[in-house]
Specification:
The chain is α/β, with parallel strands linked by helices. The strands form 3 sheets. A 7-stranded mixed β-sheet has the order 3-9-8-7-6-4-5, with helices on both faces. It has a 5-stranded mixed β-sheet with strand order 10-11-14-13-12. Helix 4 packs across helix 9 and helix 11 runs parallel beside helix 15. The N and C termini lie far apart (58 Å). It binds pyridoxal-5'-phosphate.
């Protein structure tokens, strides 16, 4: 399938930008009846030209031998490979500045398959806290059933907390991975990725360093590139900004071919890959990723400024408003290219006051998820993070008055008017 002409990223010495490459990278129209857009390869299996081809394709897919010069892996079966997914993976790798990418049926499929690929019974996962509720459940309730334990540190606790937790983890067992969610859902707490990389060096045993895995869902590839900051693997819920239209569920994992090799093998056997139709929709979405994320970020900036001055709002956890003396500020400026458009704010009062605001919203929809074209509001303590014990929620800052807002691409003035009437 690979045609080098369609994998060029340069015109002469000029390097093309990701948003330009999203319109056609990796797709040769001559191979598909000159169709401008890649067709949807809605098929479970592919016909081999000969039995010898089938044998060779399986040898490569199951890593039974090394690739011969100029040999390309052939299409076999859509759990193993599919043209839509391969094109999408090539394009996602461009955004993530990765050697390669893999796409999954959901963000949780990407996260769990990646952790299954690296964790072993008796090992420990060192992770930041808070993490998305599903990830929290996986780390604290599912993996321990397989004798994989976890040790956490508060995302806002700085390097000392991370280092102390690393020492504690090393006492319990082999550290299989350092898992970060930065910025964290829903608090926007920031973890220093370069520091995590240094700590992972110190945790090396028998010459094996635990990979640093970063969940980049909140800022997406436009505003943070974890692989350039010291991460080994970046996982993303593509359901959010990358999908961007709240009409699909998918996930991605990007990194070097070597780091992804065990993840690819695990995906093939668990069957956690993305389906072709979702892959096709994601290619459509990637064409407008930059435009959408920029529009949302501009709206979020205006809304955060408005909320920040509101008498009924206790605090606004928007990264663009971090005080100059805040511990996270230096790391934010070094690590992130912008504050993004998902943030939480705390209403004065508690659950009743937060619910009253949520129930009065007219334009902003009351729903979980984030990163879509439409604005969404939710209540982390009783929704996405309700699995976390109440005292733990308070320790992490997930208070009863906290509302999470994902700002879409509507006119920001309309959103401010909506919030004004709901808060009134
Ligand atoms: C930060 C983060 N990571 C992972 C996920 C899980 O993604 P998915 O719902 O696509 O499985 C979510 C979902 O909300 C999330 O917010």
């Amino acid at each position: 399938m690979r045609s080098d002409e369609w994998h060029k990223r340069q015109i002469g010495s000029h390097t093309l930008a990701p948003e330009t490459l999203m319109m056609g990278y990796g797709y040769d129209p001559q191979l598909s009846e000159r169709s401008l857009k890649p067709p949807l390869f809605q098929t479970s299996t592919f016909v081999f030209r000969s039995a010898e081809d089938g044998k060779a394709f399986f040898e490569l897919a199951y890593v039974l031998r090394q690739r011969r010069p100029n040999e390309e892996p052939g299409l076999i079966y859509s759990r193993i490979n599919n043209p839509d997914l391969e094109m999408l993976e090539d394009r996602l790798a461009i955004w993530d500045e990765a050697e390669t990418s893999l796409v999954f049926a959901s963000g949780m499929a990407a996260i769990s398959t990646t952790l299954w690929a690296y964790a072993r019974p008796g090992s420990v996962i060192l992770h930041s806290d808070p993490v998305y509720g599903g990830t929290d459940f996986l780390l604290k309730k599912i993996l321990p059933q397989f004798d994989v334990r976890s040790v956490s540190f508060n995302a806002e606790g700085g390097t000392d907390e991370m280092r102390n937790a690393a020492q504690e983890a090393a006492k319990i067992g082999n550290v299989a991975a350092v898992y970060l969610e930065t910025p964290a859902n829903p608090t926007n707490g920031i973890v220093d990725i370069a520091e995590a990389q240094r700590i992972s060096e110190e945790l090396s045993t028998n010459g094996r360093r635990p990979p640093v895995i970063v969940d980049n869902t909140f800022l997406g590839p436009l505003y943070q590139t974890p692989l350039k900051l010291g991460a080994d693997l970046v996982v993303t819920s593509l359901t959010k900004y990358v999908g961007g239209h709240s009409d699909l569920i998918a996930g991605g994992c990007s990194g070097s071919g070597k780091m992804l090799e065990p993840v690819r093998g695990m995906r093939t056997i668990l069957g956690t890959m993305c389906d072709p139709h979702t892959g096709w929709l994601l290619m459509r979405s990637l064409e407008t990723l930059k435009l959408r994320m920029q529009a949302s970020a501009e709206g979020a900036r205006q809304i955060a400024d408005y909320l920040n001055g509101h008498p009924k709002v206790a605090s606004v956890w928007y990264l663009g408003l971090l005080p100059t003396d805040h511990r996270d500020r230096d790391v934010f400026l070094r690590q992130c290219k912008g504050p993004g458009s998902t943030f939480s704010f705390e209403i004065k009062g508690g659950e009743a006051e937060a619910f009253a605001v949520l129930n009065r919203l007219k334009v902003i929809k009351l729903a979980v998820s984030l990163g879509g074209t439409e604005s969404l509001a939710s209540h982390p303590a009783t929704m996405t993070h309700s699995d976390i014990e109440p005292d733990e929620q308070m320790r992490l800052g997930i208070t009863p008055g906290l509302i999470r807002l994902s700002v879409g691409i509507e006119n920001p003035k309309d959103l401010i008017e909506d919030l004004a009437q709901a808060l009134g």
